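Supplementary Methods. Inverse-folding protocol.

Structures were first reduced to a discrete structure-token string of length 622. This string, shown here, constituted the complete conditioning input.
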């Protein structure tokens, strides 16, 4: 093995480790890879920088902007709400109604904004059908993943595989060449979800659902049991009997949240209770010296919680025990709402502590609690660093909450009504995207130029403004592509691709290339769950090309196996952005993904292994 190959192996190991652990951001890791490839002498500087000018990178960036145009026009939101009118009829009907627009739009749009727009609709429909959000949000993510496999535009992985195939001297893939297998994946996945979602998925309530109190004049607040309190050792029913008209909605002990705890639950020091009652009863509770009123994070400090749920605050601030609060005057004059905000995968606040966000200083928004991996955090919130998928329970005025949603760092899923931005532009936005798709299918021009032309049309017709277009370009995704593409070049250049392909063929044998397809799919699917779909595709596409050359067969079926294996990611919350996005609102834990997603991964592997050689025959190259 050459000196360059050994250096590259160490670089690959380090890159995979950092992508998995995310000790530093993906952007920093990506830039480090580009610099290292050149400084270590593995690639020439032009080769190390080639990812920035690669058609795949530019096409993915363009499709992100085109997707933003459809999002701003309200196309997804309009169709979803139209279908939601028929949402009564139980969980299965609800899942089918959610599947129709999600799969359809994901075939031509970036999956993440589709799911982001569908989450509030799904929560509304689930509440109407009396179904827990945890029973529908993970299927929603799966529907978007399955829809993305249907066309070349459906996912950045397909675009990337197409570019790598052309870079390797192949003809590339057509816009609808993925469609036959993609539709089978949709059918198999839909049947699986409908059969097993009611049996496997947990029943958990969204954080904001606890605050959906409809009775006028009733409020929710948070109380904490102090050490040495007389309540310690009492049962919940004894401490807060029913005749006091105080309802405990949730009890949090450590990081475990218990919804509607039973009256015989024994209280301990530090227990946090979300209680709901009238203003008069809450006033008496706040006067109890052995109960501590909860607080919210306002940037660098904590302030008392004032949780307006329904109706108006009493004109007398003493009714809620606010005499000593410096915020009393302001609280009386504003309409405070509580909302649930999810940290998006592309948020600039990822890996930043809550105290540095400036939400209170800039927008008057306070953080009440954070839910992560199904656990609720309320202590030391100021120093907690945010991760993609975290759910923040926030309090603020409706205009402020809408503003933090529109800035793109948070997905506001509960608490404030959102309106369509430019609904009158919807037909134009759809027409522009369809024109790009049709011309690309007819081969009028390279896809990258058609996509760029589509962006120009969106801007010219004001379906999209320049600010929204720039915000739609996700630096994390583009830098990941810009770094992994030269990494793929390096793998081929130093001979690692050929050696890995030879090892793969030695493992499964040359007699039946079907086993090569199956093994390649399984390896890709496994790596995707712990790294990312695009990084996995770049690492294994050269191996697929090398294996095809070694066997003397058409590389297309092997590349298809890599494309679908990298896209069909169901078993972890980190393998695909949409899985991360639904984790917080659904209250999911890591094991929920394994339980529900791993069988689907194996089912898709079996489906792909059987159908890929049939749709794309393993014929010898001429």
């Amino acid at each position: 093995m050459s000196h360059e190959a050994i250096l590259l192996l160490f670089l690959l190991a380090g890159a995979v480790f950092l992508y998995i652990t995310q000790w530093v951001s993906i952007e920093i890791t990506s830039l480090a890879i580009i610099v290292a490839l050149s400084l270590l002498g593995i690639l020439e500087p032009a080769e190390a920088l080639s990812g920035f000018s690669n058609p795949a990178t530019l096409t993915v960036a363009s499709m992100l902007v085109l997707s933003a145009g459809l999002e701003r026009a309200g196309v997804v939101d309009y169709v979803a709400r139209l279908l939601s009118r028929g949402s009564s009829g139980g969980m299965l009907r609800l899942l089918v109604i959610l599947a129709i627009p999600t799969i359809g739009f994901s075939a031509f749009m970036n999956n993440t904004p589709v799911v982001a727009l569908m989450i509030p609709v799904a929560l509304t429909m689930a509440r109407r059908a009396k179904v827990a959000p945890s029973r529908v949000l993970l299927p929603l993510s799966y529907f978007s993943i399955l829809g993305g496999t249907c066309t070349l535009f459906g996912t950045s992985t397909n675009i990337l595989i197409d570019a790598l195939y052309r870079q390797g001297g192949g003809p590339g893939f057509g816009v609808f060449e993925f469609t036959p297998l993609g539709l089978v994946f949709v059918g198999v996945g839909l049947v699986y979800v409908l059969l097993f979602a009611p049996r496997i998925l947990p029943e958990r309530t969204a954080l904001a659902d606890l605050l959906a109190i409809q009775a006028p004049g009733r409020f929710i607040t948070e109380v904490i049991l102090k050490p040495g309190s007389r309540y310690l050792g009492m049962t919940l029913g004894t401490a807060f009997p029913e005749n006091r008209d105080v309802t405990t909605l949730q009890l949090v002990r450590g990081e475990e949240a218990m919804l509607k705890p039973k009256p015989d639950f024994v209280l301990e020091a530090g227990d946090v209770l979300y209680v709901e009652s009238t203003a008069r009863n809450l006033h008496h509770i706040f006067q109890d010296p052995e109960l501590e009123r909860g607080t919210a994070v306002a940037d660098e400090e904590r302030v008392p919680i004032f949780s307006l749920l329904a109706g108006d605050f009493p004109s007398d601030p003493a009714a809620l025990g606010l005499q000593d609060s410096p915020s009393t005057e302001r609280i009386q004059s504003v309409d405070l709402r509580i909302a649930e905000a999810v940290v998006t995968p592309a948020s600039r606040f990822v890996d930043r502590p809550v105290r540095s966000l400036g939400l209170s200083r800039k927008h008057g928004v306070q953080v009440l609690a954070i839910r992560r991996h199904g656990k609720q955090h309320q202590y030391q919130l100021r120093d907690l660093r945010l991760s993609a998928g975290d759910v923040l329970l926030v309090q603020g005025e409706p205009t402020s909450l809408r503003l933090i949603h529109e800035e793109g760092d948070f997905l506001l899923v509960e608490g404030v009504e959102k309106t369509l931005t430019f609904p009158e532009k919807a037909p134009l936005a759809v027409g522009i995207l369809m024109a790009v798709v049709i011309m690309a299918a007819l081969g009028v021009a390279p896809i990258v130029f058609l996509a760029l032309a589509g962006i120009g049309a969106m801007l010219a017709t004001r379906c999209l403004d320049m600010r929204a277009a720039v915000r739609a370009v996700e630096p994390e995704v583009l830098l990941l592509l810009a770094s992994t593409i030269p990494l793929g070049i390096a793998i081929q250049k130093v001979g690692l691709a050929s050696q890995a392909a030879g090892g793969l063929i030695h493992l499964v044998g040359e007699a039946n290339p079907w086993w090569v397809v199956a093994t390649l799919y399984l390896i890709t699917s496994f790596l995707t769950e712990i790294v990312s779909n695009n990084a996995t595709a770049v690492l294994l596409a050269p191996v697929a090309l090398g294996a095809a050359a070694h066997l003397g067969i058409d590389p297309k079926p092997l590349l298809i196996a890599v494309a679908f294996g990298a896209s069909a990611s169901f078993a972890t919350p980190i393998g695909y952005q949409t899985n991360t996005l639904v984790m917080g609102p659904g209250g999911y834990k890591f094991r929920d993904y394994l339980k529900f997603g791993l069988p689907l991964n194996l089912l898709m592997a079996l489906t792909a292994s059987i159908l890929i050689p049939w749709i794309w025959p393993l014929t010898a190259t001429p």
